[in-house]
Amino acid sequence: MDIHSCLKDRSPPLPCHYSIETAAQYCGVLPATLRVWQRYGLINPERDEKGSCWYSESDLTRLHAILKKVTAGVPIALIPPYLNEPDVRPDIEGKIQRRNSSWRGLQAAILECLGEGKLPKLRRILWQFGREYPLHCLVNKVLRPIREFLATSNQGLLGQQKGLLDSIIIEYATYVMRTSRSHPETQVLLLPMQIDDPLELWLEALKLAGEGLNVELISLEVNDPDLSAFKVEHYMIWSDSTLDSRQQAKFDRWLNQGLPVMLVGKAANLKVAYKYQNGDF
């Protein structure tokens, strides 16, 4: 753990603090997001003589409170009253969030850019939102719902817009994955055995990179993967269909060998549902 202690010659000594990278990891966001929150005045960490920010335990508690409101869709500009005043009644808070939902506004802005062909503006919106909010919110609350909406229509124009959006998502995910490699964080391999929608891999990679993980992505299906070529901390095996007997045997062998493998995608949900129905919990 990257914990900073104050210099011995300083009097009185300050308690241990956490670097911006460590604080970001605890919150599941990028350091750039914490810097934006600082500029909005949501958090004010201490600085050392070199100008570096250090977060205390109380700062981390405040960050988690901010994260809770942000995830609920409260716009950043409206968060300070929630933090500085007693708890708002749940019914009133729900009305405020619905009226000022960050997600609805961003969805509308993205669809407008796609409809009018304003792709440079769309890129700026994604880049800005990706700095201000956790990337898992961008993926789950904005990008996935928009793609589902565009995919439900038989209109060729909306299919074209979905293709444009997918290209920009890949572009943005590649940027985030590349920048996350500047720090030697936990390495993750994301490998698909079977996938219905290849763009889902990029969305998952974007979420993981947004949590500070170093993601290696194999974008094509690999029916019989060989993990020996990769030295990473976690192997995430994606499948949207139930593993066949050969694949399941290989997956079980990895587990028996002590490899940190995890099944993700629809197959993981099917497995959980099967265990629940059969009382294996």
Outline:
This protein is α/β, with parallel strands linked by helices and 281 residues long. It has helices spanning 20-27, 31-39, 57-71, 79-84, 90-99, 102-116, 119-132, 135-151, 156-180, 199-210, 245-256, 266-277; strands at 3-4, 17-19, 46-47, 53-55, 187-194, 214-217, 234-239, 261-264. The strands form two sheets. It has a four-stranded antiparallel sheet with strand order 1-2-4-3.
Describe this entry's structure for a reader.
By secondary structure, the protein is an alpha/beta fold. The chain has 3 domains: 3-84, Multidrug-efflux Transporter Regulator, Chain: A, Domain 2, CATH 1.10.1660.10; 102-179; 183-277, 3-Layer(aba) Sandwich (Rossmann fold). The protein is built from 12 helices and 8 strands. It has helices spanning 20-27, 31-39, 57-71, 79-84, 90-99, 102-116, 119-132, 135-151, 156-180, 199-210, 245-256, 266-277; strands spanning 3-4, 17-19, 46-47, 53-55, 187-194, 214-217, 234-239, 261-264. The strands form 2 sheets. A 4-stranded antiparallel sheet has the order 1-2-4-3. The protein has a 4-stranded parallel sheet with strand order 6-5-7-8, with helices on both faces. Helix 6 packs across helix 8 (135-151) and helix 8 packs antiparallel against helix 10. It is globular, with a radius of gyration of 21 Å. It starts with a strand and ends with a helix. The model is unreliable at 1-14 and 272-279 (pLDDT under 50). One of its GO terms (molecular function) is DNA-binding transcription factor activity. Residues 17-66 form the HTH merR-type domain. Keywords: DNA-binding, Transcription, Transcription regulation. InterPro entries: DNA-bd_dom_put_sf, MerR-type_HTH_dom, MerR_fam, MlrA-like_C, MlrA-like_helical. This is MerR family transcriptional regulator.
